Structures are given as structure tokens and as C-alpha cells.
Amino acid sequence: MALYYDAASVLSSEGGQGSLKSRIYGPSTVKSNPTQIYALISETAKRDVFLKDVLDRAGLLHDEPKLTPLLALLLCHDHFFSKAGIAAPVKHPLRQSIERHKARLQSEFTRARLRRKCASVDALKSSLDRERAGLARPHPRWARVNTLVAQDVEAMFASLPGCKRKLRLDDVLKVDQGTRSYCYDEHVPNLLALSPGVDLTKTNAYRQGELILQDKASCFPAYLLLGNESKENIGDVIDGCAAPGNKTTHLAAVIGETGCTGKIIACERDGIRSKTLQSMVEKANADSVQVLAKQDFLALDPADARFKGVTHLLLDPSCSGSGILGREDIPKLALPEDPRTTMKPTTNGQPGSKSKKRKRGQGEGAGAPSSEEVPVATTGNAAPDEEEAPVPATEERLQKLSNLQTRIVEHAMKFPAARRITYSTCSLHEQENEVVVSRLLASPIAQTHGWTVSPRSQQVDGMQRWKHRGVRSKPDDVDDQNKLNQEGLDACIRCNPGDEEGTMGFFVCAFVRDLNTEEDSRGSNGSGARNGDANGGDREEAWEGFD
Ligand SMILES: C[S@@+](CC[C@H](N)C(=O)[O-])C[C@H]1O[C@@H](n2cnc3c(N)ncnc32)[C@H](O)[C@@H]1O
């Protein structure tokens, strides 16, 4: 029945990019009524954990090899909770795949209801609604005070009716009390966390560039790059992948605070995004920024006299974008165990009815989870234009991105006076993060130029205190060329989407250079990375990842 296939497709990577509503109501391939699809998804999302329990205990997927976990969940929702039952003719195979197990399902349903001490189905619904409301974590909005122009931020907040200053993020997020409040962030200077109800976009301060909407995680690179550098060590700075310019303007603000006179050279390859960058720079009054529009960073010659004073580089290249929070919930559903696959069912990333990876005769129609990522199911406040919908990442795409990211940082390592570099992504994939760091450390360019990671103990105070560090999912005994040791992992900074910190998913690592290293020396960098071909032997030029 189209409704269930459509809902499954919308929830999976097949449903395209963007928010839940844009997937359903936008120009899409869904055949059934969009309002019905939306209702089915949002109601199932309230009851998924309960339904998963019922389905697992009834062992339905053992007996129905043509059902995917996601389809089973959606169908069972309507079977139990919709007044009209499953929206399909009585003889339809999908409907039959549930109804022929009616007795077993009903008995597990009743047991699960009684375990929750609910005397009726209505009581169960209310209990599940309450549970869901308790679990939903409010997400703050983040705004950076642009110290290049900001006048009196406190006075601006005082002009917002009922908006109070708090001390801690937890207090700002107490939305159940209808509070409108803000607090200063505990890690990044001049960053504000705002309760979800505070809308700054209509304030003069926002219009005049005094406040810039920017996720906390996105403020880490500029702060990590320059936050504890002394004035005499900072010359010129390159932002190699700059548009739309959030990190560029942050760099300009941090440099402005130090009183340095160096300039920021902001490179952007894409023509249209270069225009956005230019206008953001103007709005932020970032006079120290010189935009190199339509300029490929890889085409800059590090030996060019224009760059001889470049001491710091910030690289935030295109990535899969898997850490980006959706602007609207794409629910991550708890799915029943799939007995036909050894992989645990994932919530999103669950294919609809037609997984291309399945082979005939191996549970056709079963829908083994794909390794592709889809947007995370939380509401974010990424700055306009910075974070667009993520690109689903296959292994092959991740490899290409990883190669390109490695190349970009390697290029940065060639600038003769460079002493510090940050590399960041809004990806959750190790392949684009820790693996890139490891490959870079093992590269001849890092070794001959004396580049290592900046250890946690030497990072700027707020970043030292940040507790979420690099990860390695493979067990220690697995032989892996691209493995960081504990010190290397600790040097890496991660942000996990949807956790108590209220940030998007993000990764950043700083590299520092021992300027005494001889150009042609081959000494170990002591970083724990194993030697190898940093480029994976594959020069990928043209994959257009997430921008
Ligand atoms: C993730 S976005 C950067 C976001 C930006 N740092 C910010 O905070 O607003 C990546 C940008 O890098 C640009 N880009 C990718 N590869 C590039 C290259 N080789 N040279 C210059 N720009 C590049 C993309 O066009 C895109 O605008």
C-alpha cells in the first residue's frame, strides 16, 4: 500500500534531503496523501519503542521475511492505534502479513500494556505521549556576539520582553516553564545560548551584524586556532574554504580582540557562495578580511610572496554533513530486530521497500539497513546558508571526501610561515575525521615540515575543558593503518548532535608545527599515526560533498 511504502521512503535516505515536511510536501515522488503520511510518521514516532517491544516479543519478522523492520513498525502502528486499522484492502499482502499473526500480536500488545500499568488503550496512549514529551530534549539557539560591532548586548536583551539572563544552559532550556532566557557559553567567549523561544532575527542587533547566528560547534575552529596565540605569533590568516563566512567573521573578531594587524584571506571556490561570503563579511564589518572569490584553495601557490606572512590556516572543507541537525524532526524510530541481518537495525538510514544491496534469495524485501546516513532527528539552529541538507554518504563517497579533505590540509601544511592549522567538518564519520588526522600525520609533508597535533593540554582553555574527544570504533587489536593513539584521539574534539551540550555534530583538530624541523628531515612526529600513503593513492578532484 502506497501510504506505508511512502512513509518508509520519506524516513529513509531514499526520501531525499531536507526537513520532514519538505520531503513529504515538496516536489517528491510520494503517491499517497501527504497529510496522511505526516500523521502516520508523527504518531508512530510517539509509540515506536512500545511497538518495537511488541514486535520483537511476537517474533513477527522471523515469520514475515518480506517485511522490513520499518514497514512492520508502521503497519503495526495502524493495526493497533488507528481506528480504521491498516489502510489497505483486506486481501492486500501487507495487511495480511500483520493480520495473520493477529492473536499473537494482540497478546503481546496486552502484556506490554499491562507491564506499563495501563488499564486501557487510551491510558496507554496518554502514558506514551507523556513519555515522549519527557524525552524530547529542547535544543538551544546559539548566537555569537560580533565584537567588531556589538554595542550593548545586555541592553538589547533587556528590550526583549520577559527575556532573562541565566547562568547555565540547563536553565535556559527549561522551556516547560515558558521561559525566554539566555546565558553566556561556558566554553567559547562571546557566545550566547538562547532558549528556543527567543527569536533574534527581528532585532536591530541581528540586522546590524552585532549578533551572528552560529552553532556553538561552528565557533570552535577559530577559537581553537587563535584563542591562546600571542599577538606576536599571529601574522596573516587563511580561511581556505570560507563561504558563507561564519568562521571567517569569527576569525576577524578574534583577531580584532588581540589587536593584531594581520589580514584574513578568505578563499571560496564557488561563485555564488563567494557573493554570500562577501556580503557576510560586509555585514559583520570584518574589514580585515580580503575575499578571494572563485578561488580554489588548492590552486594557491604557497611560495607566492603574497602568502609569506601566513601563520595560521583554518580549513573547513566540504564534507558529508552527517552531523547537521535537521531544521525539523526527521524522527529516528526504534525498529524491531531484524533476524535476517547481523547489523542492528538503525532508525534512519533504513531503506524503504527496495534496498539495492539485497541479493535475490537472501530475504528479498527484508530491507537490510544501509550504511548511508540521513539527517539527524533534532532541530538545529545552524546559521542560514551554512548548513544545508547533508549528502547521504556511501563508502565510496566517504573515501573520496576523505582523500580531498586530506589533500586540502596537506596543501595548508606547505605554507612556509604556517605554525598552526585547524581542520574541521560537520561530519560524524571517522573516515572524514580521525582517519583524516591520522593520514595527515603519516604524510611525508607533515613529517618533513614538522607538523603534529596540538595536544589537549596545550589547547585554549575552553577547548581543554570540552570533554567530548576523538573516537575509534574499531577494537584495538584490529590492524588498521589509520589509527590514532590515545593522545591523538584526545587532541581531537567532537560534538555529538542531540546530546546535553546542544550542538550540531562536529569535529575539529588543530595541528601545530615545530618550526625547527628541517625541511628534508624524516624524523617521527611522535603522533602515534602509522606511516602510509596519506592520499590513499587516489587523487579525487571533483566530488562535490556537503558545502
Ligand atoms: C563547509 S563549507 C564552509 C563553511 C564555512 N567555513 C563557514 O563556517 O561558514 C565548505 C566551503 O568550502 C568551499 N570549498 C570546497 N573546496 C574548496 C577549495 N578547494 N577551495 C576553495 N573553496 C572550497 C565550498 O564551496 C564551500 O563553500
From TrEMBL:
GO terms for molecular function: RNA binding; RNA methyltransferase activity. One of its GO terms (cellular component) is nucleolus. S-adenosyl-L-methionine binds at C241, A242, A243, P244, G245, N246, K247, E268, D296, D316. SUPFAM superfamilies: S-adenosyl-L-methionine-dependent methyltransferases. Residues 523-533 have a biased composition (Low complexity). Residues 326-395, 518-547 are annotated as: Disordered. Transmembrane segments: none annotated. It holds the Pfam family NSUN5_fdxn-like. GO terms for biological process: rRNA base methylation. Residues 326-341, 536-547 have a biased composition (Basic and acidic residues). Keywords: Methyltransferase, RNA-binding, S-adenosyl-L-methionine, Transferase. The active site is at C426 (nucleophile). The keyword DNA-binding does not apply. Residues 131-514 form the SAM-dependent MTase RsmB/NOP-type domain. Belongs to the class I-like SAM-binding methyltransferase superfamily. RsmB/NOP family. This is SAM-dependent MTase RsmB/NOP-type domain-containing protein.
